[in-house]
User: Fold 3-methyl-2-oxobutanoate hydroxymethyltransferase from Coprinopsis cinerea.
Amino acid sequence: MFRLPFTTNAASRAALRQGPWSAQGARRCMSVRPQELSSLTPPPRKKVTIQTLHSMRKANKPITMVTAYDYPTGQAASSSPLIDMILVGDSLSQVCLGFGSTTQLTLEAMIHHASAVARGATHPFRVVDMPFGSYHVSAEETIRNATRLVREGGAEAVKMEGGKELAEIVHRLTELGIPVMAHIGLTPQRQSALSGFKVQGKSVEGASKVLSDALALQDAGAFAMVVEAVPRELGKHITDKVKVPTIGIGAGPGTSGQVIVLEDLVGTWDGHKPKFVRRFANVKEVRDIGIHKFGEAVRGGSFPHPEEESYTMDPQLWQQFMQSQGDNNLALSV
Ligand SMILES: Nc1nc(=O)c2c([nH]1)NC[C@@H]1CN(c3ccc(C(=O)N[C@@H](CCC(=O)O)C(=O)O)cc3)CN21
Ligand SMILES: CC(C)C(=O)C(=O)O
Assistant:
């Protein structure tokens, strides 16, 4: 069921479902009577599944994925029918929690945030990152942690960073019914071992390592893979060689889809900006103007407006109350 918060009647729900992406829809909404709306609105976007994603890859229809970290961003990521997948990425650690790297994120924090995203999300397929250390110790512990992400975090699949060394655990999880999205190329959790955030697969050996990781993880059962920060020639070549969807971030236009951090694309993150980030909106500016205007209005005494933005009490009851307090000043003070 397609859920929309904030609305109380069927007509406004239908109008909202039409959404800001459809200028034509908006015009129609204004020109027809509410009871006619439901017949004009397109059906809500169907729930995206692994099968949907595999069909899209086959049909060469680019797949879209954005990150989300909490209930409102889960809703935001679901606000367009053009978004297919949500990633509760461990970039959460930096973008949302203010840590210096993704390695500081705990499993508990990830579960806390992923479950909020799941409550806000509608049709997109939800993937949750396994935090650093949560899939490193043993198969048993990895399975226990992935299970918690599914059961408590609402994950429909988990993602883990690494190459062929993960093939065995990817196979195990897949067999148990926990779909795994691989993450190859630049793996930010290994930032220290890689001596920084560097484009991967630029040398002959490097390119062949990333390709062999992709093939090994596909064979192990990964249903899709993130390919991060590799030359675009390699991004395309890997996509041609594997059958599962490749979702690129800094891997060029030749992958099956693209993923980007939500705060990067809407412009609320003003930290480091990798080359592959495009800012599609400047929400930070709008947000900060709003906050400043609130400050100005309170300082200037124009907020809140006494009638429009506050409550009042029956004058007789107010009088009784003041008398009960032994106070003879009966005038309303505000
Ligand atoms: N806001 C945000 N966006 C992200 O995409 C992101 C995060 N945070 N945090 C976790 C990881 C870290 N990521 C990063 C971070 C930096 C570069 C980066 O600066 N890359 C260099 C490559 C330079 C080269 O080797 O040529 C660049 O300049 O783009 C890439 C990915 C991607 N992830
Ligand atoms: C950058 C994307 C792919 C990611 O893994 C994250 O947001 O954590």
